[in-house]
Structures are given as structure tokens and as C-alpha cells.
Amino acid sequence: MVTRARQDRLLALLLRNGAWATASVLADMLGVTPRSVRSYVTALNARVDSGAVVESGPLGYRAGPGASAAWRPGESDAATPRDRLHILVRALLDNSEGIDVFETADRLHVSPATLEADLARVRGLLGGTALVLERSAERARLVGTEAAQRRLLSSLAHDEMDAGSFDLEALRRALGVGSAGAGAFGQFKVDLVQALGAEGYFVNEIGISDVLMHIAIAADRVSHGHPLEGVSGYVRPATDQIAEILGTLAERHLGIRLGAGDRRHLATLVSTRVVAPGAASTSEEARAPLDADVETSVRAVVIEAAAEFLVDIAHEDFIVRLALHVQNLRLRAQEQAWSRNPLTRSLKSTYPMMFEVAVFIASGLHERLGIPILDDEIAYIAMHVGGRLERSRRADHLLTATIVCPGYYELHELLRSSVDRSLGQAVEVVGVETRIDPDWESITTDLVLTTIDPPAPNDRVVRIQPFLTDADVERVQNAAGRVRRGRRLARLRTELERYFDAGAFVRGVDSHAGEDGVIRQLGDRLVARGVIDENYVERTIERERLSSTAFTDALAVPHAMGMTASRTAIAIGIAEPSMVWGDGRVQVIALVAFSENDREAFQTVFEQFVEVFSERDSVQRIVRRGTDFAAFLDELVAVIDG
């Protein structure tokens, strides 16, 4: 039922955020009233016998010690339509001759009419699966290949899990109580990683969880007499070696003898999701399995992305690694065997610019190679992008520092050595003052690390001891963080004041019109001002369909790929209450149109704007007080200024 789902959503939010949240904030995130939130809290606390699921206090609500027990309930009892749906699918998958509708209704303690409605929902799950639900009198059965049935079971298992994370208890609920337990898979994974490493492979720990889920499904299906007879499509030569490893481990830990079809199928999954050439491989060895069209397409798209976003990613090692990933992605797409990424949500909200580059690359690859790329797969591309950018961005993040340490033997030299050793990733010491009365006004570095008191306090001056302590290191790191954030937000304030337009502010957007309707509503304001044309609006809708631009739990930033606006402008829409956007809900929609001349400003505005709206308290302040454009801008600037 809807209420149960919203209770689960509330608990998921509290578990993810970890901090206190008021009823009104949670209500906005769920799209309900504060009164409903309070009723959900009461229902959640009733799920367990001891230990509060949700704690209440002056600051609102937060997840309590009983949250895990409530979030990971025991075996499904068919109390809800979702539970019955999963039980029905399992029954249909396990019984090739089908199920008796009336007997099943009795077993689940529901009326035949209710079960008929549940079967209709099963049919809804089958779209695009190559499976058909056949009905003959009182019997219903699934018709389709074993591979298609396993894909359905995989979808069912993912539905039981939260955010794509691997949870064996949730998997057992999807497969049924007779499936293998967590203990068996724990050692299975350890031995698998060790065996793959011994063969010279680099193992992707994020992807391996998803592969373990497929191994569990294969073991369950084989144990019920449903093996895979063969593997269609391309099979890598290296899979024979991996297949042997999997067959041995399945027999040792799961007590299952996998046939040739299952071993080759699982080996293909491992080779396309989990392993890559190890560090010892030469560039020629890494490139050897690459298809020419994949490498050519990746190279072209990466060069375009580097120019479009002014990012330093057009490097040969990056192109080869990404091309290997894309080739595996194409193989997965042929089998519709998508790889889940538990980091998708956090990558999108924490590194929106990096994710945006990945979306651009994904779009280009879709056009050139015809690969449909989902959000989880885009997140893997974003991880490649982030790894490349991290190698080239360190110098940009270093702050300069001057040490003030009155001379006494080699004391200042020892202090500088300690600072370099402990803080070299954050600051670069460019000067040392050894006078007891330095000219403070002449010191212009980002930070001043001093062992003596300055004449006047200053945000960039940090008092430290002559012999650096852990507390000193922490204070310098905090000061460096404040300086960097202050600079970013100062640039953001300057840019936003240029780009906002009072005529492109809408409080109370038509949330019933959905994402497309709100984009058009805000886009019309910018079209009327000559900033963009109708084509830009349509391309913004196309970009939204590639991957949701809801980068935080409160903010969506729809935009088109391609900086074709006549000038840069931002249209703001406020949803009252929050509206559905992608998989979540948002209250602020910022339609951003960038011009070619402001290409360098894109990163500043895009990433830092998302940063401001990632703080829930700031969002509530801006939304509740920003009753018109002037008030909205005042509150936004006040939040930026701290």
C-alpha cells in the first residue's frame, strides 16, 4: 500500500541523512503533510518490539537504534500488494506448469478478485522481458526462456534492495527461504577475489556485489531444476578460465554443480562487470581486446567533452580505460544485464559537474554506438571521469601559506618540515617569516600559520604551536576548507547576480504538469526574453530524459547539452509543496541556459549552486522566505555569505 511505501521512504531518508530533520522538512521531501510524517513515525516505531525505530526530539526526528530491524524486515508475509506480487512471481518462476489461481488465493488469504488484480500487476512487470503470462481456466503460467526468467528474478531482487546495494537478506526474500545464506557467499566472494587476483586481474569491488547476486540466482535456479543450456552472443576467450574458477567455488561453497551454460554465462558477467587488466599489463595488452569502433567512438566523445566543459580528460590512458569499460557495457547491453552502482545518488549530489560530463559522454556514446545508458552506468563513467580529474586538479586546490615563526636555532625549519609533511595535500608553504614583528599587512598568502599572536584576528590567520600538534593540523585544515568554500561561493554570488532575472522567477510552478511541463513553463520565460529558442527547451527535455537533473533532495537543474543561449540566464521555479522529479522530490527548479561566452563560468555556477542547495536548512530558509524574486535573491545571497 502507498502508506507502507511512504513509511519505508521516510525511514530510508532518515537512515541516509543520519542527522535530525524536522517534520516540515521531511514532509517536503515526501510530498505529504507534517501530520502524515508524525503518523508514519508512529507506525514505524510499532514495527519492532524494542528500540525506537525513529527517535523524536526538539530538533525533529532521526533514525534510532531499531531502524535497521525495521528496515530489514523478516520473511515477507504477503500482507501488502508488493509482498504478494513478489510471492506470485517466485511461484510462477518455480513452477513451469503454472499455478492454480484459486489455490494460490487461499494460500495467500486473499479473494480470487484480489489475486486477479495481482496477476494484472505481474503482467505489468513483463513489458520488454520477452516473457508472457498465459491464462487457461484456473491456471496461470509464465512462458519464456530461462535467461528472460532470470532477468525478471534479477529485477525482483533489485526491487527488494535499497539503492542497488547488495543485501543478502533482501536477496533471500526475492529468491525464497530455501536459497543460500549469507555465510556461504561471504567466503565465496573472498575466494573469488583471491583467485581472480592470482590470475592477474584488477577486481572491481563495486561491481562484484551485483555479480554475486546473479551467482545466487543461478544457484537457486539450478537447484530447482532450471539450468541454462547455452550462452548466446559473444563469449571472450578468457571466460573459460573464469568459468572454471566459478564452477569450483560454486561446488565448494554452495553445494551446486553448475552446467557449462551457467558457468559460461556467469564467467561472461564477471569478465564484463568485475575484472580489468591488472596494473602489470602493458598498454598493448590492455588495448588488445578493444574493438576499433569502440575506441574510435570513445576517443571522439572524450575530446568533445574536454572542449565542451574545459576539463583535462583527453589523455591516452583515460581513453583506453574508458573504452574497455564501454566495450563491456556494450556486451552487457546486448544481454540487458545492467550493472547497478550503489554510489549513483551520492556521486550525482556531491559531484554534479563530474556527473554532467559523464552524461555528455554517455549521450555521445549512445549516438555513435546505439548503447542505451542508464543512470547507474552513467555513474560508472563519472567515476572514470573523477579519477582522471583528481590526477590533474591537486595543484588547483592547494592554498598558499606563510609561516610566521620567530627565529630560534632551526625551529622555523623544523616547523616548515612538519607543515609540509602533515598538510602538504592542503597548503603549499611559499614563505617563512622569522621576525618577532613581521609586516603583517605585506603577507598576502591565502593562509598565515603563526606561532605568535597577530595584532588583529583574521579568518585566514591560524595560530599554531612551534611543534605542530594534531589539533594544529585540524585547525589549519578547517581554515583551508573555509577559505576554499568562501572563494567558491564568492564567485558564485557574483555570477548569480549577473544571471538571475526577476521576470524569470515563478513561485508556485504547475507541479501537476510534471517535469516536462515545468521545464516548458520556465523555458517560456527565457524564450520571451530572447535568451533561448524553443529548440533549446526541447533539448532540455531530452537531456532530462537521459538522466534526472535532481542533483539533491531539494534542487533540480534542468539544462540542455550545448551552450547555445544568446546570453547566460537562470529561470527559477518554486514548487509548493515539493514535486516529483526523477526518483525523488524537489522544491526548487533552476532552468539554466548558458552561452558560449560563459563556458568557463559553467563549472562555478553549476557545481557551487548545487552545493548551496545540498544543505537542507538553507533550502528551507530560501524557500520559505523567498516569497518573491527580491526576497529569494536576498535569502540566497545571505546563505552564500554565511
Automatic annotation (TrEMBL):
SUPFAM superfamilies, per the entry: Phoshotransferase/anion transport protein (SSF55804), PTS-regulatory domain, PRD (SSF63520), Winged helix' DNA-binding domain (SSF46785)
Domain PTS EIIA type-2: 498-642
Annotated keywords: Repeat
Gene Ontology biological process terms from the UniProt entry: regulation of DNA-templated transcription
Limits of the PRD domain: 289-395
Source organism per UniProt: Microbacterium halimionae
Organism lineage: Bacteria, Bacillati, Actinomycetota, Actinomycetes, Micrococcales
Keyword check for Phosphoprotein: no
UniProt cross-references to InterPro entries, sorted A to Z: BglG_antiterminators, PRD, PRD_sf, PTrfase/Anion_transptr, PTS_EIIA_type-2_dom, WH-like_DNA-bd_sf, WH_DNA-bd_sf
Name of the molecule in the record: Lichenan operon transcriptional antiterminator
